[in-house]
Amino acid sequence: MIKLDRIIALALLAFSLAYAWLAYSYELLPFELNLPFKPNTMPIGLSVIGIVLSFAVLVLPQRTDAAVMDESTVDTQEQKAEQAQYDWIRPLLLIILMIVYALSLRPFGFIAATAGFLVFSSIVLGERKFHFLIPVALTGAFSIWYVVQELLGIYMNPWPLVFG
Amino acid sequence: MLEGLALGLSTAFSLNNLVMVMAGVLIGTFIGMLPGLGPMTIIAIMIPVAIKLGDPSAALILLAGVYYGAIFGGSTSSILINAPGVAGTVASSFDGYPLARQGKAGKALTVAAIASFCGGTIGAVLLIFFAPALAKLALLFQSPEYFALMVCGLTAIAAFAGKGQVLKALLMTVFGLMLATVGESALHNAPRFTLGVMDLQSGIYFVTLVMGLFAIPEALYLVFDPARARQSKDGDGTIKNLRITKKEAKHIAPVIGRQSIVGFLIGVMPGAGATIASFLGYAMERNIAPQKDRVEFGKGSLKGLAAPETANNAACTGSFVPLLTLGIPGSGTTAILLGALIALNVNPGPRLMLDRPEVFWSVIISMYIGNIVLLVLNLPLIPYIAKLLAVPRNYLVPFVLFFALVGAYIGQNNSTELLIMVGLGVMATIFRFAHYPLPPLIIGFILGGMLEDNLGRAIRKSNGFDFLWERPLTLSLLVVAVLFLAVPLYNDWRVTKRKVSPN
Fold first, then answer.
1. Per the CB < 8 Å rule, is A53 touching B500?
2. CB contact under 8 A, A39 and B496
3. What pLDDT does B162 receive?
4. Which of B48, B221, B264, B462 is 20 to 30 A (C-alpha) from B64?
5. Which distant-in-sequence residues (6+ apart) come within 8 Å of B129 by Cβ?
6. Helix, strand, or coil here: B204?
7. CA atoms of B202 and B417, how far apart (whole Å)
8. What Å distances lie between residue B434 and A9, B425, B429, CA to CA?
């Protein structure tokens, strides 16, 4: 089975190639043609390094024993053992909800869209106590809107577009 | 220096900034305690608020407070429920959690707080001496040296963050640099790589990228892997007796003294940071402890708890040295702080101390205040704050996602930004599954603009690449960068070779 890190390396190789093509085909202005440092000088250099590195990750054997830990991944070895039990459906639904939220902010207004997002994402995660969930979502949405707009002074339309 | 200290004191002790540091520390502790949420995520969430404050001193003071608070909050969840939110506090759970299971949770928290306080305070004293000296040296730097220094920093970060996966870390750095070239650059006004998308004209918004890379995967991971959020049944959450005896204080004092200095020095090195400092501190103290103390390590040793706690806080302070004096972040977290400063029109670097002394010194002074707030305000409140550990996942995850979305939205006020963020979040989650380290990506992204700017100026000045070998300082920095890469790459290659062919 092809490992996920090789697939990512392949994707990054494709990205680097596309980036290289865009960098090479960048249209320079007449006065830029003779500059020692052009707008596409660094991108061309980066694309070459990107292609070499992604190709190297793709073909060279990778260490799998390493205690691969950085600030964002803790106890990855244990996680690996539990990977089989990962829940894939709910994260996917949450991602869809985030996209819907992004698209509904303008037409539905901040408060309705946010309360909707909070309620539905909690339902996706298994929450069923609606008498508790709905007030929490509404209070959360309203208080954040209040903090952002009234205290921080950033305008956010709270109501659906039809109300102006 | 005394003048600077006085200026820092007067700025940091203004009512507004005192409120900022207290609020920052409390918010950091609150959120940092939630399993799975590290300082990077919390700072990312707080950045729109900090930028909106408008005053760089207040903003940095708030964020530095959040940083300290988050580290302390992370230690609290490590000790109480054995769920370290970040790698930096993993070592604290080795002895902290056994202590909590023995019913000494209060004592463990006090030791952690005192160790953090001392580590942070001694670190801040060292910072006062280190930073101005380094800043003076850095004033000799010109564009070629800056370029070389950034290459040096990027390679060091990739080499440290990779831990056996240096190539992947390097690839992530280059990917971050590529993302930084989207939109207009400092030297050229025409937009690049926007693919006709108007919203990309001014580049990818930094908060969008940070939220996408850290907050979203963090929240999704809590759902992917319920075990990560599951709470241990062993701790019953009640915390009694926060006191430690005089004898115990004497027992841990030398550990705190040693680890403050070691942690600070590790923190100063780019890329090393709190995680390495805490593990190294733990290992070092275990090795030099007398036999009767050594057997206690891992079973609830106070020394074993004090060492990583001191070292990680001292390292956090140390990581401010390269940020404030060279404008080079030493870790993912300081990279995010650097991004926030740039958004506030402050350019950290050697000139910061001369041009904006109030920012420079007030941050240092606020570190002291932050540490005092941690000890005086947070510790007595811990039994109450710990109740937050009971927030169910069904509410925690939607709110974290919502904060990430709102953070990106209020910065730009358009939905495209949110869609870009969700896309980046999905990408980052996949990267994490395949162990591609993300901090190098964000550091590459943040340094990308400056790197290109300095490289461009250096090339134009010398009309070519001659500056690479004609300037001794540039050349030496580049040689160091090559060494940073060569050593771990060689080690990787050796280990892989041994694994592939055991004979």
1. no
2. no
3. 63
4. B221
5. none
6. coil
7. 12
8. 10, 14, 9
pLDDT digits (tens, 9 = 90+) for A22-80: 999 988 888 888 888 888 899 999 999 999 999 999 998 766 544 444 434 444 455 55
CA distance B312 to B415: 39
The pLDDT of residue A71: 39
Window 147-166 of B, Cβ < 8 Å to A: 161, 163-165
Please tell me which residue of chain B has the smallest CA distance to A123: B394
CB-count burial class (<10 Å; 0-12, 13-18, 19+) for B248? middle
Do A62 and B402 count as a contact with CB atoms less than 8 A apart? no
Q: Show residues of chain A in contact with B88, CB under 8 Å.
A: 71
Question: Is the predicted pLDDT of residue B164 greater than 80, yes or no?
Answer: no
- Distance, CA of B434 to CA of B87 (rounded, Å): 18
Point out which residues pair with B192 in neighbouring strands.
B183
Q: Taking a C-beta distance cutoff of 8 angstroms, is the pair B367, B316 a contact?
A: no
Q: Is B206 on the interface with A (CB under 8 A)?
A: no
The Cα A89–Cα B21 span in angstroms is 41
List Cα–Cα distances, A89 to A115, A154, B332, B395, B495, in angstroms: 22, 35, 30, 18, 38
**Which residues in chain B touch residue A157, judged by CB atoms under 8 angstroms apart?**
none
pLDDT digits (tens, 9 = 90+) for B285-294: 888 888 888 8
Side-chain-side CA neighbours of residue B242 (13 Å): 15
CB contact under 8 A, B495 and A42: no
Q: Report helix, strand or coil for A3.
A: coil
Dihedral sign for Cα B453, B185, B215, A144, please: positive
> With contact defined as beta carbons under 8 Å apart, do B284 and B307 qualify?
yes
Q: What share of chain B is helix, strand, coil (3-state, %, to 5)?
A: 80, 0, 20
Does residue A98 register a pLDDT over 90?
Answer: yes
Residue A3 and residue B434 in contact, taking contact as beta carbons nearer than 8 Å: yes
Q: Would you kindly state where each structural domain of chain A is located, as residue ranges? A: 4-71, 89-163
**Quick check: B273 and A106 CB within 8 A?**
no
Give the tens place of pLDDT for each residue, B43-65. Answer: 887 888 888 887 888 888 888 88
DSSP labels, B32-87? HHSTT--HHHHHHHHHHHHHHH--HHHHHHHHHHHHHHHHHHHHHHHHHHS--SSG
pTM of the predicted model as reported, rounded to 2 decimal places = 0.79
